Amino acid sequence: VDRVRKVTPGGAVTTLPLPPGNRATSYYPTSEAVDGSVLAVSNGVIARIDAAGVSHFIAGQAGVAGIADGVGTKASFTTPQRLVEDGLGNIWLTDTVPGPMTDVGVKVYHRKIAPDGTVTTLADDPVGIAYWGKDGTRWGLDADRNVVRIATDGTRAVVRRSRGIDEQITGMTADRAGNLYLALREGAGLYAVRKITAAGIETVVAGNPGAVGLRAGTPGSLGPIDAITTAPDGTVYVMSEGALVRILQ
Predict the structure, then answer these.
(1) Could you please report the per-residue DSSP string of 169-206?
(2) Are 233 and 248 in contact (CB under 8 A)?
């Protein structure tokens, strides 16, 4: 059974007391914590879990898979992922539908939940959206695996070109200043976090070539990166080799 766990800045770990009716379902966090709460998904329902572990319904139908738009319980989701909330209270997410449910194989939809719980499905986009910024900016990978930034007016720009098949981007996140962070596997000898500023300047903030495995230090070294996120203060966190790692810059 999945759990939602809370880690304080001092490193204290607690397991949140989820409502009894949710304990048999899959509850997992899908966004950065904001004001002590986090967006989470359970059995097709999107909810907000506050710091006390109380679940607050937002949208979706338990056990019902689909891509139906509507308000609250009128909407449905299939595999909602990568939820992020912008500064206006809108929630942006991707929703993946497996092949047997479509005529075109696996399909990824981009969807929006307004503050009043209204769910809408956005027009198809050839860029796979991996992260939504707080101001509505989007980042993702195009067909050539280049990192693309899409502004709120639809303007697109390649912010990082693919560097070959030996490099794999395993996650991305952005801070409120517009800096993008990429979690990468760079060949067999480097797991790294790279930062790309709004001006396009790229630096390595964690990871040491040839040193595979979790070690503290500057820049330190990492193992496979399972998740990456930024806190409201801009601190970057990753999950690597079963450990929660804070990256200070």
Answers:
(1) EEEEEE-TTS-EEEEEEETTS-EEEEEE-TT--EEEEE
(2) no
